[in-house]
Amino acid sequence: MYIAKHFQPHSPDAQANGQVFMPYLEVLRGSKLEHLIKTYKLDELQAEVFYPQQAICDMQKQMSEEMGLFSGELVAIGVKSIDSIGFPAEVKTIEDAMGMLNQIYQMIHHNIPKEEGWIFEKVSDKTLKIFFNSPYEPFAAYGYIYGIANRFKPAGTSVSIYMEEEKDLTVYRVEFE
């Protein structure tokens, strides 16, 4: 089974849709990392064009190095990404949204292994386990999960998200209270 390494796409031919970059532009404007907009030419990118996946990995790595491993900007980018997804009306639960997240990941990337992306399992009615097999930085992925959990959580519940490592993968445990 393919296991992604952080900041190292499977192939130099791996590509990400320009949509993936758009939340970066929004979050980085006015932040301490605003210089990355020019460095990575974020304001010149087009949402419908595919770009090298390595560019996102390089940018995330630079963000982590400049701001520390837990970069609030990376989490904010993940949340913004989820906010921008127009989930179909039939998506009403976290499980529904997580089920679609891997499909979306595969659609907005080209030339990646089928094992790359998101896998989730329902551990119990109050716990989900989400596996992230991607070269992207795990705190941006945390933002995706945080965005989904808060958008689709059952009314009157709170959500806690824990990051763990398991079999060389980043795993997120989502618990509802």
What structural class do the secondary elements suggest? Answer: alpha+beta
Largest sheet: 4 strands, antiparallel
Could you give the order of strands across the largest sheet?
A: 4-5-7-6
Oligomer: single chain
Mean pLDDT: 90
CATH architecture label name: Alpha-Beta Complex
**What ranges have pLDDT less than 50 throughout 5 or more consecutive residues?**
none
Shape: globular
Q: Roughly how many Å apart are the termini?
A: 34 Å
The helicity comes to 25-40%
The CATH homologous superfamily is called: H-NOX domain
Mind explaining what this structure looks like?
With 177 residues, the chain is an alpha+beta fold. The chain has one domain: Alpha-Beta Complex (H-NOX domain), CATH 3.90.1520. It is 38% helix and 22% strand. It contains six helices and seven strands, in the order E-H-H-E-H-H-H-E-E-E-H-E-E. The N and C termini lie far apart (34 Å).
Task: Write a concise keyword list for the protein shown above.
177 residues, 6 helices, three-stranded antiparallel beta sheet, 7 strands, alpha+beta
